[in-house]
User: Fold these one by one.
Assistant:
Number 1:
Amino acid sequence: MRVLVAGAGNVGVHVAGELAEDGHEVVVMEQTSSRVAELRTTGETPGVAWVVGDACEVTQLAKAEPQRCDVVVAVTGDDEDNLVISLLAKQEFGVPRVVARVNNPKNEWLFNDSWGVDISVSTPHLLAGMVEEAVSVGHLVRLLSFEHGMARLSEVTLAQDSPAIGQPLVGLGIPRDATVVAVIRQNKVVVPRGDTEFYEGDEVLLLVTGDADESVRRLFIAE
């Protein structure tokens, strides 16, 4: 897979390094030449190709050959730049998948397919979800959203009065728009099967689509 990462801040460098380590072809575009020189010198990201240029300018973005990429990741520290990069990548170069970073949660509503964004990642919202997940029992907590909220990765830690306790997965009647993807029990991951039973304290991870949240909530959370 060929990936173009726009923005060589800490987030961009980390993403690029992990992708390159996993064997992907990674190009990072950064408009500040001194930043590129610094990263080349430190050698933090072996295997990553560097392009100096402003990814918000179509002629400069073309230098990184985004039309050859499977994914473009816009992770600058400016939401306006990330939106422009996403739009150019999708409309001018036909990139199949565009992932964009949301710096200000108030701007999250803009990060949709109108701007060429396939997946948006809001760090503040993600952190809030993780904090909630760590301390909440008996609440359905949304951890991640995909496809502009059409699919959600949610978690619920089963309280003592959860109606799911003692029930096998096959007998719960999980709606078609939801899937139990994993159960974390005593720091171990249980791959759920039809006969998997639920216990107090289980952390249940679910992939929920459509309007299934309320149905899922009734199955795992007492009224």
Number 2:
Amino acid sequence: MTRRQLLLASLDGHRETVFAFGHEDVLGTSLDMQFAADSAADAEVAEAMVLAEIDRLRGVLSTWDPGSEASRWLKLRNEAIVVSEDLAAVLRAYDTWRERTGGAVDPAVGAATALWEGASREPDAAMRATAAAAIAQRHWELDGRVATRRGTTPMVFASLAKGYVLDRAVEAAMAGPVRGALINIGGDLVVRGELRPRIDVRSPEEGTAARIAVADMAVATSGDYRRGYEIGGRRYSHLLDPRTAAPATGVRSATVMARDAVTAGALATALAVMDPAEGQRLGDSIAGTEYLLLAANGRPILSRGWGALAQAPPADGMELAVEFEIARVDGQRYRRPYISVWIEDKDKFPLRTLAFWVEKSRWWPDLKSWYRGDRMRAMAEGTEITATVASATRAPGKYTVKWDGKDSQGKPVKPGRYAVCIEAAREHGTYQLIRHEMEFNGTAQSVPLKGNVEIAAANLAYRKAAR
């Protein structure tokens, strides 16, 4: 795994400092951590504790690692052996959620995936029924920690194992010298202690479906994010229902907030393959959970308490989504670019910083246009915001940041003409700046912008804010 960086940012209304760390290639995805701590040294202790716990559990639960305890146990047949408490806990979780969801959560769903991946024609009803029957078999028997593998259907421990790792990782962090922790593995996350982050829920169209406040909860999302199977010119969702071995058709994505990551992951998986009405009944039956479903027709379906989690939309009901793609640049000396996105008035005075993705403070001046403007703003307003807006650099890919029409002090700006600026600077690379002026007067518009070496493409979408 590779470590990305350390950053500092003040917590809103709190005296603690937030330290953030990022790593790649952790459980096959990215790992992001934030800690509320008194010092960088304390945060680094928590980081090390989390990494050690994840490494330990990978050696137990990973079904992609042939040497893990889970992989070795799955090769056995009809042999009762004592397994670790961690493996037993994940097996119990699958038993529980397989029953509670009527089979919508099952570690043998790969039998359905094998039907659809690379298929030249749509699997017929008989093929789907055969796969569904294999998935429906009893996969093991569990008595305490004594586990007996039954059947031959291949298993993959995915969402529930990931949730279990998240829950244990955040426990490890909170056992260290920190007051709050956020652990994010591949988009699913857990928050504990004194952190109160605002989380953007991704939509299948690459935008933001909702913005929610999270405290002492876990969040998981399962969705149809431009992935799927192309067969005979027709697209099918990659979300497969284990009960039918057929693609899900009723829901594009499901986001669940629950008290623990195992519950959040199980429900997000189930609600993504169930039809909306069935998913609502299940979600409403689980105490302490909230959900947001995006139906196939784009209609949002909310749990009763979801509205209380959502952040208020802008006063005029409009927002600007700055959508851009960090280019992938080949080369051995490639470094992730530093990125800043901000709003200027007609006098080129910076009103609001939307993104400031950069390493330690010595690199801040590399984003020279943003930095020069912010020094001017700091002298005019008498406030420093640099530490509170700094965030980790991002890997190549598509991103969206939003402006709610307010300045850096939280006051709404007047309708008029403002400039949107996207700046990129890369070590051993190039410096690029995109600046575009547009009218903000309540009339929706979408403006594509020409890309460059560092920013492959960008688009400005001024539209009604999601509620």
Number 3:
Amino acid sequence: MHFEILVEDQSGKIALDILIPKIIGKNHTFDVKSYKGVGRIPEKMSYSVDASKRILLANLPRLLAGYGKSWQGYPAVVIVVCDLDDKCLKSFRNELINLLNACDPGPETRFCIAIEEGEAWLLGDISAIKKLIPKLKILC
């Protein structure tokens, strides 16, 4: 299986380049592609976005459509990792799913939406983790 991972920034790529091999093992391949910000999903599913700007959500319609067409029958999955920021989780997730459903064919895709507490855990922000889970026992 091949994992194509799209992240909104360079720091996410650096972290995932270290973590992913430990998660998927040696029998799979992966590529983490970083972008210069998350941006917004275009209102019209236009594929004419300036790809050189490297904004993740602005390019996502074109990317998913391309993976869907070129990966038919190929064992691969696209994983989109982005921050929730100030968006409503339910409506943001629905926008992403609608975007994927507009692709014909659509690639196998998973959306991973990071929230501040998740990032705090990844970065080891103990005080933020304790606020999120007060009963958590920290060993360090």
